[in-house]
């Protein structure tokens, strides 16, 4: 994606909110039930289908998008389904707890919760205004060995919005589990929604999502496999 000026402002957009009557795991399960096939009623479109084989980074992925009907926000909801060789749910959780974010300027572990954490980060990408995040992590290590993780933008007294920094919105809800059919393969399904705010046109963000998701997973797998190799 080319350079974008984020100095302007856009009209306020409706953002998803955590629902007190519905757990993050229940919302994930609800989204997981939505069909992806042709003519599906939710409007999912497969933008990058399963490849025929694993790539050199030892993973394969399918990426789908749909409108965010729940809010009418013009940014798309993304579903990613992936298969990864040589890594585990705990490996991926470790990465999510301290991700390798491009342009990271500040990272703060704010609070430990009974089922997760509050974390703050500030990033500055080239040609873009600085943005920050206040994230609530919800983590569930399940009896079958799978791990559910949800990262959702929240508010916290120790993370006030700062002048000159745009508070971005981010939602990522995922389940990681070892495959029942492929030995040594971890399977993942994730749902991602983000609104970076400022003057970024949602149409540009939506167009970049499929390729950006695949590239992010390639980078993530490289980091994880190098880390595991170094610990041997």
Structurally, the number of domains stands at 1
The major sheet is characterized as: 10 strands, mixed
The helix tally amounts to: 3
The CATH architecture can be named as 2-Layer Sandwich
Low-confidence spans: pLDDT under 50, at least 5 residues? 1-10
The CATH topology name reads Alpha-D-Glucose-1,6-Bisphosphate, Chain A, domain 4
Rounded radius of gyration (Å): 18 Å
Assigned CATH superfamily: START domain
How large a portion of the residues is in β-strands, by DSSP E? 25-35%
Total beta strands: 10
The chain-level structural class is alpha+beta
Shape: globular
Percentage of residues in helical conformation: 10-25%
Task: Describe this entry's structure for a reader.
The chain has a single domain (24-231), classed as START domain (Alpha-D-Glucose-1,6-Bisphosphate, Chain A, domain 4). 21% of the residues lie in helices and 34% in strands. It is built from three helices and ten strands, in the order H-E-E-E-H-E-E-E-E-E-E-E-H. The protein has helices spanning 24-32, 89-97, 202-231; strands at residues 45-48, 59-66, 77-85, 104-113, 116-123, 131-141, 147-153, 166-167, 169-178, 185-195. Strands 1, 2, 3, 4, 5, 6, 7, 8, 9 and 10 form a ten-stranded mixed β-sheet that branches. Residues 1-10 have low confidence and may be disordered.
